[in-house]
Design goal:
By secondary structure, the chain is mainly alpha-helical. It has helices spanning about 1-25, 30-45, 50-75, 90-110, 115-145. Helix content is about 80%, strand content about 0%.
C-alpha cells in the first residue's frame, strides 16, 4: 500500500514537472504577436484601397502568414492550445467587438469614401489582436502552471 502511494506521488511530481517545462516553452515570442497584429492590419486595412485585387492579394498574404505562424508555433511547442480555456472568453468577446467595430467603420468608410477611417480602425484592430494574443499566451502559461 505504501509503495503504491509512493509511486503515485512520484508520478504526480513528474507530471507537475512536465507541465512546468511545457509552460516554459508555450509562450510565443513577442514577434509572433506583432506579426499577427501586422497581418490583421494588412488584411483589414486593404479594404481602405477599395481595390478588390489588392484586397485579394492581402487575403493571400494574410492566410499564408497565419499558416506560417501556426506552423512555427506547432513545431516549436508540439501542440496548439484549445480555445476553450479558463479566462479566454473575455478576450474572445473583445476581439468580436473589435471586428464588429471594424465592419461598421469599413461600411461607413467605403460608402462615404473615407479610407482614413478604415485604415485607422484596421490599425486599432491590429494593435488589439497583438495585445490579445500576448494575453492569451500568458493565460495558457498560467493554466499550465496551475495558477488558474
Amino acid at each position: 500500500m505504501e509503495s503504491d502511494e509512493h509511486d503515485a506521488r512520484t508520478q504526480l511530481a513528474a507530471l507537475r514537472s512536465d507541465r512546468a517545462a511545457l509552460a516554459d516553452r508555450v509562450l510565443q515570442p513577442w514577434w509572433w504577436d506583432v506579426a499577427l497584429g501586422a497581418l490583421v492590419f494588412l488584411f483589414f486595412g486593404s479594404y481602405a484601397t477599395r481595390n478588390w485585387l489588392l484586397i485579394a492579394a492581402a487575403l493571400a498574404v494574410f492566410l499564408l502568414g497565419i499558416y506560417g505562424l501556426v506552423t512555427y508555433y506547432r513545431r516549436r511547442t508540439g501542440l496548439w492550445p484549445s480555445a476553450d480555456r479558463p479566462g479566454l472568453q473575455p478576450l474572445l468577446r473583445l476581439w468580436l467587438a473589435c471586428c464588429v467595430a471594424w465592419a461598421v467603420a469599413a461600411g461607413l468608410g467605403m460608402s462615404f469614401a473615407m479610407p482614413w477611417l478604415v485604415a485607422g480602425v484596421s490599425a486599432a484592430c491590429g494593435v488589439v489582436v497583438t495585445v490579445l494574443s500576448r494575453r492569451s499566451g500568458q493565460l495558457f502559461v498560467a493554466q499550465l502552471r496551475g495558477e488558474l
